[in-house]
Amino acid sequence: MSPATYAYSTVLVEMECGNCGVPFAMSETLYNAFHKDHSRNWFCPNGHQRHFIGETEADKQLRLRKYAEDRAASERARADQAEASLRTTKGHVTRLRKRVAAGECPFCGQHLRDLQRHVNRQHAEEAAAAIAEPEQA
Fold first, then answer.
1. Does residue 36 sit in the same domain as residue 60?
2. Is position 3 within any domain?
3. Disulfide engineering: 28 pairs with which of 11, 84, 86, 123, CB 3.0-4.6 Å?
4. Quick one: 114 and 91 in the same domain?
5. Over the stretch 65-74, which tens digit does the pLDDT of each residue have?
6. pLDDT digits (tens, 9 = 90+) for 91-132
7. How many Å separate Cα 87 from the centre of its chain?
8. Three-class SS string for 31-93?
9. What's the pTM?
10. Considering its fold, how many domains does the chain have in total?
């Protein structure tokens, strides 16, 4: 019986040892595996331990996802703070409206029947300043 003969081909990736400079090659499959996991080591033909450095694609994706999550959380916190500030402002406006509707001076708290006349006589400057303030959106 004669020995079996097989045809085999693979793609090789050329490299050079960064330590001794000897050129060598490894299979593309192995090269891709080392490139995906930078914690794995291999050796050049002269025995120098080698590994890829830097950020892997998976590390980069993880970093970008974490950045996006942190940014989204920051934006949510900012929106929550703005909403709380708006609620507070609405509360102040409502309280002032109720005081004025009950005939109470918004500047000094005195209860008056003719509120408009009181404000124009006693608080003209404050009223003018309050009217001149720009509306906040």
1. no
2. no
3. 11
4. no
5. 999 999 999 9
6. 998 888 888 777 788 888 888 778 878 877 888 887 777 766
7. 25
8. HHHHHHCCCCCEECCCCCEECCCCCCHHHHHHHHHHHHHHHHHHHHHHHHHHHHHHHHHHHHH
9. 0.49
10. 3
